[in-house]
Amino acid sequence: MLAIEKNRASQIQNIKSKRIEKVSVDELFDGISKGQYPELAKGITLIESTRPEDFEMANLLLTKCLSIQNSSLRIGITGVPGVGKSTFIESFGSYLTKMGKKVAVLAVDPTSSISKGSILGDKTRMEALVKDPNAFVRPSPAGDSLGGVSRKTRESIVLCEAAGFEIILIETVGVGQSETLVHSMVDFFLLLKLAGAGDELQGIKRGIIEMADAIIINKADGDNVKKAKLAKTEFARALHLYPPKENGWIPTVLMVSSIESSGLNDVWSLLKKFFEESEGNGHLSKNRFEQNRKWFEQNLENELKFRFFKNPHLQKDIAETLLKIEKNEVSPFHSAKLLVKKFLK
Amino acid sequence: MLAIEKNRASQIQNIKSKRIEKVSVDELFDGISKGQYPELAKGITLIESTRPEDFEMANLLLTKCLSIQNSSLRIGITGVPGVGKSTFIESFGSYLTKMGKKVAVLAVDPTSSISKGSILGDKTRMEALVKDPNAFVRPSPAGDSLGGVSRKTRESIVLCEAAGFEIILIETVGVGQSETLVHSMVDFFLLLKLAGAGDELQGIKRGIIEMADAIIINKADGDNVKKAKLAKTEFARALHLYPPKENGWIPTVLMVSSIESSGLNDVWSLLKKFFEESEGNGHLSKNRFEQNRKWFEQNLENELKFRFFKNPHLQKDIAETLLKIEKNEVSPFHSAKLLVKKFLK
User: How large a percentage of chain B has pLDDT more than 90?
Assistant: First the structure.
């Protein structure tokens, strides 16, 4: 980080800290439970804080919010850069708020950082939603690790639900592990695609298509309509090749023009169908419990591994073992066992 | 387990134990390094033993074998039951031994157990290979967990390589997690399919096609040839839809008749091409080091989690936490952190 960026980062942290210190957890919770935006924003800032002294307050606020958490529809939205995610969220979000729905937009963006300016960047890309009294837009939190960023997003969902938001849209960029993380915190996973020439599935990370509950061909307008229809057919065929999902849901391909605001009815109908079905057969709550359980187990693993790898007495052993493993001198199984034994002694 | 099966299992364990006790690690290692089959078989039995008193000997033998481990081609073979894996291995294995290659066949079969008789079952299905002086066939080890079974198989590879086997075929049934485990211990992953009517990719677990380095349409003989050709085209198209693999390898579809022994030349040519390419560009050794590292990390995780979950002082807390997580009363993150803190105190 350059000095000027560091300076800016520390300024931002200072402003955030001051904002938090002014209010108590009770005040924050009171505001959030009444659906007040400033308190919700401050609460999320508290959750996102990396200062150890904020952790306890954050956990207290979280536990309070969990107690009044409303049910919402959590929808993940992914797609490669340039596919028009922000424009889609802007127009679909506005479509929902016009129906009287309260919509929160969160983001898990591993490429985001203060120096790149996306803290404000995201917001300005969704001008209408930002001004919409029924919408709450929160850019991606800054974080050292993707796991950290997604964890903060996962906890922000709880705060948004406590504030009465009925639909949570979680945006992610289609790179690396972020989709898997977003997929593990949502009920429904949308993949946005453009109608292109030729190999429609190229450029998408392995496994993403399999996670999608629906594929949306975006920018299906003007000269693109014909190409979009072809893409729709090709994707429908590709989806057909996969075995059915555990919950019985059959992924669907839709066409949307975010600019012409067409196709949004279809998206909403599909979502309603999904939520009616999966609430009816119990898969929604089953899925959420399993997600929570997985987050718990994963965090358990991470925490155990973190403590193990940062243990000062093990540094030399770990480095030596890895070298021996690389040279094929020791079994990866036995050496792991030995090191854990030493760790827990 | 029925009493009679239990009895049989304990008899088998007794016979195995006696067999092991008769020889020392040095004797075993000496025999293995000379490529002697009885010592190799006994060594693997030692590796597979679940008696804690055998662990140290097993590790000693393993470390010795690692020191003289030859390079081999490790090939994973998967496909749903009935696709003809054993017949394919029998005919491809014989094809290889006729070329003078030494071939070992191992299995990771989560459905295998003593009561189902597959310890002998596998062997009798490969009559020619079992009698072949250049082949060594080892059925799936019995085990409580798939992870345990695959770990034993992973270590058996080391022993087979120390005994001079040049090609290791690892068979797995296309159900559950076993392919992922086999994929993580081989250089090349083969998916066997039958030419069927209609949806060729149906019935295969999500993700398996993405792991395949080649798909083989088996039983491409007699009336099946036409259907096999159609299947080949459909699979080739499906593979084309995936982004390229990290090592640059482009998965291929081949047709084989294990009964008519046709297509085996093509399979061997493809494998040679793969190994020449990936040895040339360094991906083979890179992949193996990464696999070892992953096995190490995974075993580290497993061991840490195992110790955590069986800790007698945590049983009550874990049960209570899971209940609270299910009811959405606590954050999965904070509760994991708290429990780990208690564990390491």
Answer: 45
CATH of domain B69-280: 3.40.50.300
Question: Within 13 Å and on the Cβ side, how many CA atoms surround B7?
Answer: 3
Position A139 pLDDT exceeds 70:
yes
Cα–chain-centroid distance for residue B9? 23
Q: What is the CATH number of domain A69-277?
A: 3.40.50.300
ipTM field: 0.73
Chain A residues with CB under 8 Å of B67 CB are: 329
- Indicate if the pLDDT at residue A136 is higher than 70: yes
- Residue of A151, A241, A332 lying closest to B201 (CB–CB): A241
Interface residue of A333, A338, A340, A345 to substitute, partner B, most B CBs within 10 Å: A333
Domains A69-277 and A293-344 share a fold: no
Considering only A181-195, A223-237, A320-334, B140-154, which range has the smallest mean pLDDT?
Answer: B140-154
Residue B295 contacts A where some CB pair is shorter than 8 Å: yes
For residue A244, give the H/E element and its range: none
What would the mean pLDDT of B144-153 be, rounded to a whole number?
77
Answer for the pair B257, B263: CB distance below 8 angstroms, yes or no: yes
> Which structure tokens are listed for B325?
């997580």
Max Cα distance, chain A (Å): 68
| pLDDT bracket for residue A6 (50, 70, 90) | low
Domain ranges across chain B = 1-68, 69-280, 293-344
Q: Is B249 on the interface with A (CB under 8 A)?
A: no
User: To the nearest whole angstrom, how far is the Cα of B78 from the nearest Cα of chain A?
Assistant: 17
CATH code, residues B1-68: 1.20.5.170
Looking at residue B274, what DSSP letter applies? H
Comparing C-alpha atoms, which of A68, A52, A62 is closest to residue A28? A62
Please, what CATH class does the domain formed by A1-67 belong to?
mainly alpha
Q: How far apart are CA A167 and CA A137, in angstroms?
A: 12
Residues forming beta bridges with residue B173, ordered by sequence position: B79
Contacts of B325 in chain A (CB under 8 A): 289, 292-293, 296
- The CATH number of A293-344 is 1.10.287
> CA–CA separation, A118 vs A121, rounded Å?
4
pLDDT digits (tens, 9 = 90+) for B193-249: 887 644 445 555 557 777 899 999 988 888 888 888 888 888 888 777 777 788 889
The answer to whether A236 and A228 have CB atoms below 8 angstroms apart is no
If you ran DSSP here, which 8-state letter would residue B221 be given?
-
- Cβ contact (<8 Å) for B308 and A300? yes
Q: Are A128 and A94 in contact (CB under 8 A)?
A: yes
Identify all chain B residues contacting A314, using CB atoms and an 8 Å cutoff. Answer: none
Residue of B nearest to A56 (CA): B334
For B36-47, the pLDDT digits (tens) are: 999 999 999 999
Residues of A in contact with B191 (CB under 8 A): none
Instruction: Work out the minimum CA distance from A126 to partner chain B, whole angstroms.
Output: 30
Task: Work out the pLDDT band at B118, boundaries 50, 70, 90.
Answer: very low
Contacts of B79 (CB under 8 A, 6+ apart): B85, B174, B191, B192, B193, B218
- Put simply, whether B62 touches A (Cβ < 8 Å) is yes
Cα separation, A136 vs A345, in Å, equals 49
Which residue in B265, B279, B254 sits closest to B72, CA to CA?
A: B279
End-to-end Cα, chain B, rounded Å: 40
